[in-house]
Amino acid sequence: MKRLMITAAVLAAALRLTASAQVDGQVIYGSDDRIDLYQTENTKLRSMADSTVALVNASSVKAEGAVAKLDVDPYGPGMGLCKDEPFYEQVTAAFCSGSLIAPDIIMTAGHCITSDSSCANTKFVFGFSVKEKGKMPTSVPTSEVYGCKKLLGRDQVNDGADWALIKLDRPVTGHAPLKLSKGAIANKTPIVVIGHPAGLPTKIAGGAEVRDNSKNGYFIANLDTYGGNSGSAVFNARTGLVEGILVRGETDYVYRGSCRVSNVCTNEGCRGEDVTKIDVVNEKLPGLQHQDRVAGLDGTFASLLMSVSAEAKP
């Protein structure tokens, strides 16, 4: 799901500036707007990235005491990419992305977690990122790996909203839940996406904006995203609030001779990337959390609570 939305002016600016970034105001990244965690000193961006997770197949995570080893694959050779493709030498592990929105709740795309079974077979891994140049993450502390306790709810409409909420096996420690926006986001608003494009370690990508907010359940943006970014939180670059979930987009790669490179479009070209509007989740979250709390109560008390709630309705 991808294209690098780069105009000549944006590229020239990127070459003149460093890879540091600012959340309120403009966001400055590298030549294709994606950077690794170590490439920014911006505390707000680093905090936002700290609350995002990699969705990894449970069979690819091997806990050995205090360390959980990840089965990683080479990115460039594994994807048949040309050697000058950005991040060619890095590794991949994630199949989707997600974000922490409550102490024990992860938000992602509905097509990433399709059933209780797929949820049970997924690990939610914090800290899969490049924190030091050239040092690939092939393991994380075991404490950074969480399992699925319950799929709270999901929806997947091919031309609409696509979301899922997962209750983890325990509350998350060391990471703060992200704050969700309230209300619609306007066209032209600058936005940032943080996740795992093509399964890579955490990437922060700005230099994008909302192109069309008129769609039902989602908006269209010119984000630099790929498969693997599905489920990524999309942030308002001015406020740092979550505005949506990256769910669909353009073809990722095209052939250049015998190898592949990222598909390149202008800022207004191609189909754009689809982002589920956060108000869809805001509408569902209170009810899902209430149901979950009731389900966890003692049976007699839960039944009494439900009957009282029913009697209270007009």
What does this structure look like?
It is a single chain. The model is unreliable at 3-31 and 297-314 (pLDDT under 50). This protein has six helices and 23 strands. The chain is globular, with a radius of gyration of 20 Å. The chain starts with a strand and ends with a helix. A hairpin with a 5-residue loop joins strand 18 and strand 19 (242-248). With 314 residues, it is α+β, with helices and mostly antiparallel strands. It has a single domain (4-286), classed as Thrombin, subunit H (Beta Barrel). It has a seven-stranded antiparallel beta sheet with strand order 12-10-3-8-9-14-13. Strands 15-16-17-23-19-18 form a six-stranded antiparallel beta barrel. A three-stranded antiparallel beta sheet has the order 4-5-11, with no helix packed on it. 19% of the residues lie in helices and 33% in strands. The longest helix is centred in the last third of the chain and has 18 residues, at 278-295. It has helices at 8-16, 43-50, 75-79, 116-120, 278-295, 299-312, and strands spanning 4-5, 34-36, 52-57, 61-64, 67-70, 73-74, 91-92, 96-102, 105-108, 122-125, 139-141, 145-146, 148-156, 162-168, 190-195, 203-212, 218-221, 233-236, 242-248, 253-256, 259-262, 264-265, 273-277.
Q: What attributes does this structure have?
A:
single chain, 314 residues, alpha+beta, Thrombin, subunit H, 7-stranded antiparallel sheet, 23 strands, 33% strand, disordered N terminus, disordered C terminus
